[in-house]
Structures are given as structure tokens and as C-alpha cells.
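Researcher: Can you fold this with fe (ii) ion in place?
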Amino acid sequence: MEAAAAKLVIREKITGATAAVFAGSVEIPEKFIRTTEVQEAGAVVSEDEVFELPVVDMAKLLDPELSASETAKLGSACRDWGFFQLTHHGVDEAAMQQMKDSAAQFFGLPLESKNSVAVRDGGFQGFGHHVNASSGDKIDWAENMFLFTEPVQDRDMDLWPANPPTFRHALDSYSVEISNLARRLLGFMATDLGVSQEALQGAFFGGGDADDDTGRQPKQQCTAMHYYPPCRHPEKVLGSLPHTDTLGLTVLMQVDDTPGLQIKRGGRWIPLRQLLGAVVVIVGDILDVLTNGTYVSVEHRVVPDAERGRTSVVMFHEASVQGFVTPLPELLTGGEARPRYRSIGILEYRKGSSRALAQGRRFVDTLRM
Ligand SMILES: O=C(O)CCC(=O)C(=O)O
Ligand SMILES: [Fe+2]
């Protein structure tokens, strides 16, 4: 029983049989079929229905004349939607392109090559796929690669692909670029929230010690790369189950222009088309807690495309205050004194949130007061 309970989130090695299914079998095996979940989760808004999806422009955030109004726009996106697309983000173009190329080339390799960095038994990092034990061991229609990128001492270099040869350098450079972007964005979020930049940035960046909220290294950055193969029956499978991101701040880059990511709003799914050159910024559960519920983490999922594969590179940033997931103390003084979430130690949070995710629940809901 104990062992079964612990076995909730599983990543598994991708077998030749699964690779053959992804490569275009007409019949979809039962273990991939999610028809009920797809239907029960709500209607998809048609692409031609007009929606004002939030777009924030970093060039405006940095322009002294436009910064205040653009910061307000960023704030309302985080409060009302839980995500936005960011244009003119300033991420080094060469680093971005090398990361896109390396990810696409990696997923394009034969299975045996990819399996040289396969997830180990009971492990989390490496190449594999998600198996959801709580829904009868169903498998997501996706291949994914998970790697801890920060702090540097947490990197498991044995699982960083040596092929394509650009991969390691690309991930290392892109990781630094996205850390810098995250820090900059958090500065504008702090302004919008009326808290000090040190408080919000310090929750995400530290000196490597959980109690040291002053350094420049991200406390934890985890990178996911996903490849969603095309599926002839996209209504029957899911590339990623509906979820909110359990860490603090997510920066998502799409490698191609295949649709697939959908955001939940008002009980319906809104397909998101990434703007050319933009990145998608998503509020995660920990940022929801830090802001005492002012910013909302948003539910999203991925539906594969019938004709084209889709590849994405996603970086998640963890945050804590003196080792606790808790509303920022600055927000609890003065007017809004009532905490909406109880505090929890970061290790307990990690355990609880991954277990809840595997059961299709949101752990943060259990922290609400
Ligand atoms: O691939 C995507 O666009 C979304 C992936 C995602 O939601 C995640 O990795 O948490
Ligand atoms: Fe996500």
C-alpha cells in the first residue's frame, strides 16, 4: 500500500512499441485513450472566436514613459488570466535559436539514441513519458525530457544528451537567459504588487542555501522539453493532462508554430497561438501563494495536432521565503492582513504537490485558509 501510494507520479522509459504508436499507427491502443477526460474537461473555444489574449511588451516595460501602463497590463494579465505572451523579451536570439534547434534535433533522433539518456527506474530526470497511475496507467501522447538546470550542482550531466553536440551548450546558455528574464519580470511584478523587488526576486533567487534569499542564482530551475507527435485521432488522446504549474514562474517557448496549448478560462479551453518570436509566461502555484492569491495560477493542457508534431521548451522556477512556501510577509502587513494560504516547508510542498498532480488534484487548494 505504502509502495503503491508512493508510485503515483511515474515517468517511464519509452519502448519501441510506444515509439511505433507515435510514428503513426492508425489504431490507438487503449492505454493512450483519454476520450472521456477530453470531453468532460469543457468545450474548446473555436479559433475564430475573438479573444483579447494578454500580450505584454518588454520594450514598453523598459521605456520610462510607457513602463507604468505596461506594468499595469502585466499585472492585470497575472491577476485575471494567469498568463501572458511576452514580446521583445530581449532573450539572446542566437541562444534561443540554438535551444530550439537542439531540442528539435534531439527529438528527431532514433529512439535508441534518445534512450541513452532515458529516465531511470523511479527517477524524474531524463528522457521518457508520463504514466498516470491514478487513471489506470494511461500514457500522455508525448515524449519529454526533464532536466534540473539550476542550481548547477543539481545537474545530472549523465542525463544531458551529448547528441546533438550543441545540446548541452544550448541548454546552459538558454538557462542563464531565462533566469535573467525571470528576474527582470519579477521586478515588474513586484512594482505592480506594491512589494519590494528584493522580496519577490529574493523568493526565487538565492545563494544556493534555502535560507539565503539574497543571491543571484535561481533557487531551482527545472527544464522540460516536450515533443507531441501528430495524432490522427486528436480527440482521443492528450499531450498533457489539465494542470496548473506547481512551481512559481514558467517561461515557455514553442519551437514550431503547431497549435496545441490550451488555457482554461470560464470553464472553456482557449487555444493559444504563440506569437512569432514571443514567449509565454505562466503564473505557477507558488507565485499564486506568494502573492496571497492576487496572481492566479492557470489551468492548461496540450492537445496534439492531427498533422504536425509540436515541440516546446519550458522552464519552471521554484520559490520560497526562508525555506517556506508562504504569502510574502510584506503583503500581510497593513490593509490586507489576512493570509489566504497557510505556510508550508518547501520539501513538504514538493512532495505534496507532485503527489496531488498525479491524482489530478491541485495541492495549493489544500493550503487555502
Ligand atoms: O508544451 C506546452 O506547451 C505546455 C507544457 C506544460 O504545460 C508543462 O510542461 O507544464
Ligand atoms: Fe504546464
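Model: Folded with fe (ii) ion in place. Residues 11-367 form a domain with the Jelly Rolls fold (CATH 2.60.120.330).
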